Fold this sequence. Notes:
This protein has helices spanning 17-27, 69-78; strands at 6-13, 32-35, 39-43, 50-54, 61-65, 82-90, 93-99, 105-109, 116-118, 124-127. By secondary structure, it is α+β, with helices and mostly antiparallel strands. A hairpin with a 3-residue loop joins strand 2 (32-35) and strand 3. The longest helix has 11 residues, at 17-27. The model has no long low-confidence stretch (mean pLDDT 96).
Amino acid sequence: xxxxxKVDCVRLYVPDLEAGLSxxxxxxxxxxxxxxxxxxxxxxxxxxxxxxxxxxxxxxxxDLLVDSADEAAAFIEQxxxxxxxxxxxxxxxxxxxxxDPWGNPLVLLDASKGLLKTDADGNVIGNINP
Length: 130
């Protein structure tokens, strides 16, 4: 069985979340799934992956979903990869940043704490228990 389950999100930096939403949601037509003060998840209609706009980190990245970030880190390290940032907590579970043997970054996360729970306007109000 493959370690990486699917693409969770394509993460993009925007300096102003409202301006980012104006472009990606209002002009390009991507539906808002959820939002916080510093980030918003938008639907990619032919995929389970999200387009994630955020204002806190200028790096662009692809986040990949695994069953367990901690176990994936150990497995990839054993297979010849390198841990760049050890596993840490995120709202939906755990995340780890690794590099493959050629230096390609791998951002792996799990949803062990449950997916985001939102109100009718898409504002994040907690987690849906796994």
